[in-house]
């Protein structure tokens, strides 16, 4: 039977700081400390004392803490240090320690916890004795215990013999332990407490297993707030030990807002990280990324047993999120209701959306429209809808407006009146954009044999030897002095933009040449933004007038 007289250490501010950069509102901190104290929490760990950059609870300056905790607290206050922050050239940097850690008689703190990996435990005797002489009680935490066998845990215990360390902890840093693993650790003796992570959803069960096997201390955080997936919940431990008071529930309500913002807590990626000993900060970052589910799983496979966090490693795996936005305006001056016009029995907008879906997946396809009928049709087919205003000057203006509501890095504009586009061309445009992030990307192809350069409906493009667009016109360009040119290329309406390029595009009215030609790509050129062209060979045909439907159906039948 578990001893219900166990001690609870709360480290919400220290561990939760990995999400807030160790910055918390003073009012919230006061409320947290008062509610923990009134509910009998034995030690409240307020943060780190660290030379590493971060907010005030990364530094825990004594004067700052005194200005916040300006009321009597029955619980002991603690701070943590990481061994790695105070070791340089294989030696403890005592000068740095002395600069950062004051004597306890001038400090609100009475306890220092020292966190060490197995490779760092050799520094613990001199570190702990030095800080003990400053008047603090010492607790040592052994990190990454799931990676260790018991002889290595025993080495940690033995190395502290003869020191002034008053308590020993093991930390399940990767959330990989099962209750039976915990039982075996504590049956051997020599360990006083445990800090559990919830990757496998077993943080509370592992605490109970430790307490059943003579642990005296367990760590927790309010709502489990902590690095990566987070920890056992302090309120779980308190409820298990005793009744709780309403002020703690009020504080939980406040921290619920932080959880909604930062989204820590058990999920499948954290469970994979626990099983495979992946550092929790990788998953914390991946959860904030725009990767598809497939890319997330591939990234986790690459990160198997990456026990040390390197941000560079993650940047190699993360991809920019790319979405396709299809502007679909009902009130076309030349062809009202054009997106809903049927081609071989299916609405044109759905033809285009299906091609986009084949390129980037349905979850990354958005229909930008001002019309309810178009929205209802596309939403029923499973596509994302963004309602845009009726005053957008062009399709790209509509994409720019939609982009304000979409969290993505690359925006592909596929015009809703080109149902013969090739999904592979969309992928080529995406690849070109990644290689040329400073440029807008657009497509170009040679005129078909039955298309005329003089046709004002067809924008013609001229470009330099590096496929940089020089100009786009409805006139037959380029020309020569004799019988015309055989170098006619037409615009194919697949574009790629960054969000900032769309913002710059939409900041003012149509530019002079854009207005004259009625071709929106010219606005980028006039505003000094380069346009890189991707030549495509497939048949494309834009629908501008009702009579174009029959021509298009003929093309589709032939293809």
Name some characteristics of this structure.
single chain; 559 residues; TIM Barrel; 8-stranded parallel beta barrel; 7-stranded mixed sheet; elongated
What is the CATH C-level name of the largest domain? Alpha Beta
Count helical runs: 23
Give the second-level CATH assignment, the architecture of the largest domain.
Alpha-Beta Barrel
- Proportion of residues in β-strands: 15-25%
What is the average of the pLDDT values? 90
Strand count: 21
**CATH fold-level topology of the largest domain:** TIM Barrel
* Rg of Cα set: 31 Å
* Approximate shape: elongated
Q: Report, as a whole number of angstroms, the end-to-end distance.
A: 76 Å
What is the helix content?
25-40%
Describe the protein.
It is a single chain. The chain has about 550 residues and is an alpha/beta fold. The chain has 3 domains: about 10-260, TIM Barrel; about 270-315, no CATH class; about 320-559, Spore Coat Polysaccharide Biosynthesis Protein SpsA, Chain A, CATH 3.90.550.10. Strands 1-2-3-6-7-8-9-10 form an 8-stranded parallel β-barrel, surrounded by 6 helices. It has a 7-stranded mixed sheet with strand order 15-14-11-16-20-17-21, sandwiched between helices. Strands 4-5 form a two-stranded antiparallel ribbon. Helix 2 packs across helix 11 and helix 8 (about 180-185) runs parallel beside helix 9 (about 205-210). The longest helix is centred in the middle third of the chain and has 17 residues, at about 245-260. The protein starts with 6 loop residues before the first strand and ends with a helix.
